[in-house]
Amino acid sequence: MLCAGLLGAQIAAIFLPQTVFWPFAAFFVCLSLAAGVACRPARGGAIVLLAGAVVGLALLARTQNELEKLNQRYAGRLVQLSACVEQIDAYGDGRVSALLRVEQAEGEAVEFRCQCNDLPACSVGDLIRAEFWLEVPARADRLDYYADGLAFSAEYESGFVVAGQDDSFRTRAYRWQQALSGAVRRFLDEDTGGVLAAMVVGDRGHLSSELNASYRAAGLSHVLVVSGMHATILCGGLFAGRASATRPRKLWRSRLRSVASAGMAILLVGITGFTPSVLRAGISIWIGALGVWLFAPADALTSLAIAGLWITLPNSYAVCDVGFELSFAAVLGTLAGAEVVRRSRAARMKRQALRKNRPQPSTLRQWRGRIAGVVWESACISVCASAATFPVLVLRGMSTSLYALVSSVAVLWMVQPILLLGIGAAITGLLPFLRPLQMVFSFGAGLLVWLLNGWARWVETWPGAQIYFETGYAAFLCLVLIGLCLLAYHWRVRLRLALPVILLVASVGILTGNALERDIIKVTLVGSSTAPSVVLTQNGQAVVLYRGGTSGQTAVENRLARDGVEQIALVVDLRLSPETPCTLEAEQSLTVADMADYNTEKYRCGGIGVEVFRTHAGCGVRLMAGGRSLVAVSGDFELARPVHGDVLLASASAPDAFTWDEVLTLREDCSWMTEAGEAWLDQTLSLRPGGGWRLS
């Protein structure tokens, strides 16, 4: 209850506007107090829940206060930083995108992290010195930055120097990860080796976007991310048996197993880069190992709660990390599924005990019963885990697969042998004289991964593989389904009656939601706050106004995947002097740099009209969508007289050639915006073809 109150208060305070949160908090407090007064057994739980909420708000206030102090001291300034390179996301033309752990700022010892998307080539573990311009993260990326413990978005200015090498555990773990990843992939092709490296050591750098999309469509994305499931398979079974104090030999054997499991968990957390999902699982394993030494009874919920509290203790924004939320929800669902299996098994054994004169079943029937039991257990756990993660997926604007349950039952049995064979290939690959044994492990793991890849690609071709939801409607649907489940439990409705009703309501709700979303045009700014790209989507097709950059293209691809776009109808490259070509695949492409001066190009893509006008020093774009005109500029674009547009898609370029009524922007401090005394914070626009729109 304490964990629920703490995490729930933090999530509500972060995601809800202040004008909504405080009335909601007051209503929640009154409701809890009323429940405690009316029901004496619930009084203790209500007090603990409120205490957790108070502690959660206090921790969040502390985190926000620390961020505010850093912002007041360094935001909007050119600062000399000494930092360690913790992670590198992308390479290109001697430049990298890096995550930095800052150790000194202007010669003073500090401790914060920042993201720099354009840094001279360097490696993980390098100690660097340079001048950076530090900015508060753009509003669209702020929660993701803070959830990862990043305080600033840094722009490199000058003076880059590699001053040495870091020798911390994080750096060593990264080197181990790269060495193990290379060993895993040595004898395998690109797709098979990339999936195996992602599953075993968490190295997703060799995973193709095409295969990643196939796994997402098949509902198996969680298999590619080292999480609590992987940690449980590798570590949880090592000390599953427990010994009593009356048998010292078995007790010490169990204690030694727990120490080995805790050590394996530490190694797994380090190799995978301290991601929240693995860190939460590792903490749970350490708590379980401690319980073996202290004779404490196993309690998965307590271990899960303590792990969640421990992760959010230094940074309250960790609750905003999608991986943490999905991992936490999946474990809750798995525990619920295991409890359903336990109760059904106990009920079956009770029925069998009542049938005293029942004849002994044949061997064939016994095997059929065992297979049915395994399928039932897998189905229960998969259903409960999928149901628990469903609200997180839809409320965070992500997609879910229609065939996630089928995929889980069909292929999850392969995860354990893949992990064990993959670890064998990784370890034996570090010793040259074990090369023949490594080949055996590699080919065994590769065969299973090949089958897994084949399943994912096959399911991707099934109709309606991925489902997407509008966030507000999805929240309402989730509340209805949760309410029906609670009513069925309270009224003790039989499962064979309750389950079809719940599935029917869910199906009707999903079909209704998809019908309501049909033909809606969504306009979103993504990428850099200074040069954001524009993505317009409608019925699985997209129009992209691209402004360049490795991180910008990644942001566009992530947005398209999030919106379920199957095809890009048009890409307009707005760069006037592109250093690298745009590699987004589309039916039609237009590069502004190739257009003649004072020339116009027009396109029609579904319900979206596109008009691009090139001048000598810039270009302007006018989009017609849903009866509204949207305008954008690149470079120094001027006209004889301003042209009116309903919505300006803002960037750092001054839009003097246009007038507008509303603005979409990722940045509120552009020079032209400040001079005009205007500051809009909207970044997404939804348009209905028949009229009506919504900014968010």
From TrEMBL:
It is found in: Cell membrane. It holds the Pfam family Competence. One of its GO terms (cellular component) is plasma membrane. Keywords: Cell membrane, Membrane, Transmembrane, Transmembrane helix. InterPro entries: ComEC_N, Competence_DNA_uptake. It is a multi-pass membrane protein. Residues 199-492 form the ComEC/Rec2-related protein domain. The chain crosses the membrane at residues 44-61, 217-239, 259-279, 286-311, 323-341, 374-395, 401-427, 439-459, 471-490, 497-516. This is ComEC/Rec2-related protein domain-containing protein. The lineage of its organism: Bacteria, Bacillati, Bacillota, Clostridia, Eubacteriales.
